[in-house]
Amino acid sequence: MPITPTEKIWFNGELIPWDDAKIHVLTHTLHYGMGVFEGIRAYETDDGPAAFRLTDHMRRMEQSARILMMPMPYSVDELVQAVKDTVRSTGLRACYIRPIAYYGYGEMGLNTLPCSVDVAVACWPWGAYLGDDSLTNGVRMKISSWARHDHNIMPPAAKTTGNYANSSLAKVEALKAGYDEALLLNRAGFVSECTGENVFVARNGTLITPPLSAGALEGITQSTVIAIARDLGFDVEFGHLSRSDVYIAEEMFVCGTAAEVSSVLSVDDRELPCPGPMTLAIGEEYGRVVRGQVDRYKDWVEHVR
């Protein structure tokens, strides 16, 4: 999706004009992929724009940096404030938010220890990643020929820039084959996740989502969905899923900050019930939760004003 520029970007502690947020061609992370980032949404609420689970996202970003041994120059609280300041500066009622920390200009080579760390926050208007009607109409998926990397190759627990080369290869392969999204298996053949979303499959009335050991990122939207599903009375568990489990699913959906909750219409041309009743109920409740309309979850809604 194209990016619509906004007025300001937060960069290393200050808000600067959008067009001034530039990096040098010899920026370290541009060459070696050693950076961490988050994807967050701010939604319009009755009390102005609010970033959903902002503090949890910033904690995960700090944890990702720790896994990479990247020293973060700002605390979680400072990053939370940076996001709020950036969103407020745009005047947008709702937006997508991209914080990123990366090794900057001045050092080259695989040794990151001498490198400085730059941090930026940008936000812009952005619709649902898999389509505004993806909850009701569903998306067509293809199991990728690319395997998800495991914990001893690239750390899937960290949301790192370099990890997403794997996702991009799978995404482009699926799009060129005429599908909307790719489903990645790990090297043992079990379902891991999609290119940017966690997976939920219904079998025998229970929702199953792959465990972290399968190579899935520990999703903040995933944990939100689990809480919502259980509060709605649905059974949810972590468990390994084979490709056959996906083909005969009673219903299936994916979730992520960008994709929100999106139904799955088919996998490898095997059609699935879409949208399933649990998917629809969870997706509709999710839409209310992120907008601060459900009292039980209001602590997750962090207002920027």
Written account of the structure:
It is a single chain. Strands 8, 9, 10, 11, 12, 13, 14, 15 and 16 form a nine-stranded mixed β-sheet that branches. Strands 1, 2, 3, 4, 5, 6, 7 and 17 form an eight-stranded antiparallel β-sheet that branches. This protein has two domains: 8-124, D-amino Acid Aminotransferase, Chain A, domain 1 (2-Layer Sandwich), CATH 3.30.470.10; 134-289, D-amino Acid Aminotransferase, subunit A, domain 2 (D-amino Acid Aminotransferase, Chain A, domain 2), CATH 3.20.10.10. The chain starts with 7 loop residues before the first strand and ends with a strand. A hairpin with a 2-residue loop joins strand 4 (40-45) and strand 5. It has helices spanning 28-32, 54-67, 76-90, 134-137, 164-176, 220-231, 243-247, 277-289; strands at residues 8-11, 14-17, 35-37, 40-45, 48-52, 95-103, 117-124, 139-143, 181-185, 191-194, 198-203, 206-209, 235-238, 251-256, 260-267, 270-271, 301-303. It contains eight helices and 17 strands. By secondary structure, the chain is an alpha+beta fold.
Which structural traits does this protein have?
D-amino Acid Aminotransferase, Chain A, domain 2, about 30% strand, 8-stranded antiparallel beta sheet, 9-stranded mixed beta sheet, alpha+beta, 2 domains
